[in-house]
Specification:
The chain has seven helices and 15 strands. By secondary structure, the protein is α/β, with parallel strands linked by helices. The strands form three sheets. Strands 1, 2, 3, 4, 5, 6 and 15 form a seven-stranded mixed sheet that branches. A six-stranded mixed sheet has the order 9-10-11-12-13-14, covered by helices on one side. The protein starts with a strand and ends in an 11-residue tail after the last helix.
């Protein structure tokens, strides 16, 4: 079982949580109908990417009872179970012990939570006269790299700004992650120069597949525009498929996991690491 079809959902997010969840369900069903086996939602798919909304849209989630404590995860677990698909649940503002986290959940095709990752590297940017934002004003940092088991092997999730830190992606690769999923709300100012470069670099550095799922532009929300351009990159660093803009769309891409071993045999990068330096 080495081939897998991934549905990357570049979704536009609005100011109504109820509408966002309903729209996410609609897009998930569409991607599943097109044969998607793992479906990926963007970062903060339940709310606009703004400090104004994070706390109000947050959910206090009991890991042992996610369906009764999370409106968002109740919907997604039911969909995963009904459609027999894995879902990378973008990210949700998660409240825990008074702290707010940017958290991604992974569900298997029985609707069981198999992974939970809290964003480690918070997005702080200050480009003079252009954009200034401090995610750390609102969120607390996660502290664990996370891989999870699937029927295709191990995989991992990081969130948006995390993609800039190869040591985190390397940790996942060294724990046998074959694919790293990256839900994101990437900024257009940095996206035009860095988005493709980062995903290709992390794929080449670690000889894995990288999947970037950015949210789509919402013309009604102009305060924070997203870059879009969701993509899939193979272990050789080539872009397999990409959405060419920041419009809402679903990207269906077939991955052949045998490419990982093929690339690693040709260029034994990970096995050549000098751990004693």
């Amino acid at each position: 079982m080495n081939k897998i079809k991934v549905g990357i959902i570049q979704m536009a997010v609005g100011i109504s949580k109820k509408a966002n969840l309903s729209h996410a369900a609609e897009l998930i069903k569409k991607a599943a109908k097109e044969g998607g086996e793992i479906l990926v939602l963007p970062e903060m798919f339940v709310c606009p990417y703004s400090k104004k909304y994070f706390r109000d849209f947050s959910e206090e989630i009991d890991e042992n009872n996610i369906e009764d404590t999370s409106e968002s995860l109740k919907l997604l677990t039911n969909l995963a179970r009904e459609l027999k698909v894995y879902i990378i649940c973008g990210s949700i503002p998660e409240m825990h012990n008074g702290n707010l986290y940017n958290t991604s959940y992974a569900l298997n095709d029985s609707g069981v939570m198999i992974g939970k990752y809290r964003k480690i590297h918070l997005f702080n940017i200050n480009i003079k006269n252009k954009v200034s934002f401090k995610e750390s004003d609102t969120f607390a940092c996660g502290d664990k790299a996370v891989t999870f088991d699937t029927k295709w092997g191990k995989m991992g999730t990081v969130i948006c700004f995390d993609i800039r830190f190869n040591e985190l992606i390397r940790e996942l690769a060294l724990h046998d992650a074959k694919i790293v999923f990256v839900p994101a709300v990437f900024n257009p100012l940095t996206g035009k120069d860095h988005w493709d470069l980062l995903f290709r670099s992390r794929a080449v550095d670690n000889q894995i597949f990288t999947i970037g799922c950015c949210s789509a532009r919402n013309p009604d929300l102009i305060k924070y525009t997203t870059y879009g351009h969701s993509l899939a990159v193979n272990p050789w660093g080539n872009i397999i498929e990409q959405i060419p803009n920041n419009d809402e769309d679903i990207l269906m891409v077939q991955l052949d996991l045998d490419e990982i071993d093929s690339v690693r045999q040709q260029l034994p990068v990970l096995s050549s690491i000098k751990k004693d330096l």
